[in-house]
Amino acid sequence: NGEEDKHDEL
Amino acid sequence: MNVFRLVGDLSHLLAIIMLLKKIWSSRSCAGISGKSQLLFALVFTTRYLDLFTSFISVYNTSMKVIYILCAYATVYLIYVKFKATYDHNHDTFRAEFLVVPVGGLAFLVNHDFTPLEILWTFSIYLESVAIMPQLFMISKTGEAESITSHYLFCLGGYRALYIINWLYRFYSEGFFDLIAIVAGCVQTILYCDFFYLYITKVIYGQKLSLPA
After folding, report:
1. Which UniProt keyword terms apply here (chain B) (predicted)?
2. In terms of Cα–Cα distance, which of B49, B57, B182 is closest to B127?
């Protein structure tokens, strides 16, 4: 889903 | 967010600010590899293209903006404002030998064959080797100013803390990103030699000198 695709780390 | 990643990000930010301040206040970039700083600017540019398309948090967005601005400011100081102090003769690492293989690898090994994901993967792989011109330059000049050593210690430490963050996230939320983890381990391993010298020498006030 969209959540996993986002890289939430810098 | 966990304490390891937060301290890691702050260590990274400290390194970037420390270098920028050193160049600005000494009005010189002697001993600094412009190539590594160019590579870091490329790393941030290709990694943070999602700055405008996905919002994670205020912290995430503001740190990305700060990293990009500082990276380009540092490159500007080295190649434009204080270019007379740029040490061409010792900053001779062939950066294309890093960018080309990393670019190829990003096409072959990635999570998703889309432009944004391939660029993110390229950025992760590139960051793991971006410090090599700087380490190479220090090995050529045979020494580094103490502020440059502190910069490298913080820069190396940030990804080492990220490795702990990845372990923590794996055990606490089952999250792991193998590409980031493998590249992060390679990146941290590259600093090991420097970490040893830093701990055994710089802490006791000696100048850091890598074996030429």
Report:
1. Endoplasmic reticulum, ER-Golgi transport, Membrane, Protein transport, Receptor, Transmembrane, Transmembrane helix, Transport
2. B182
Distance CA B180, CA B173 (A): 17
- Residues 6 or more apart from B69 whose CB is under 8 A from it? none
What ipTM does the predicted assembly reach?
Answer: 0.88
What is the nearest CA distance from B60 to chain A, expressed in angstroms? 7
Tell me: the pLDDT tens digits for B82-110? 999 999 999 999 999 999 999 999 999 99
Contact B32, B78 (CB under 8 A): yes
Nearest CA in chain B to A9: B60
* CA–CA separation, B46 and B32 (whole Å): 23
SS3 of chain B:
CCHHHHHHHHHHHHHHHHHHHHHHHHCCCCCCCHHHHHHHHHHHHHHHHHHCCCCCCHHHHHHHHHHHHHHHHHHHHHHHHCHHHCCCCCCCCCCHHHHHHHHHHHHHCCCCCCHHHHHHHHHHHHHHHCCHHHHHHHHHHCCECHHHHHHHHHHHHHHHHHHHHHHHHHHHHCCCCHHHHHHHHHHHHHHHHHHHHHHHCHHHCCCECCCC
Nearest CA in chain A to B58: A8
Residue with tokens 């100013």: B145
How does residue B47 score in pLDDT terms, banded at 50, 70 and 90?
very high
Q: Å from A9 to nearest chain B CA?
A: 8
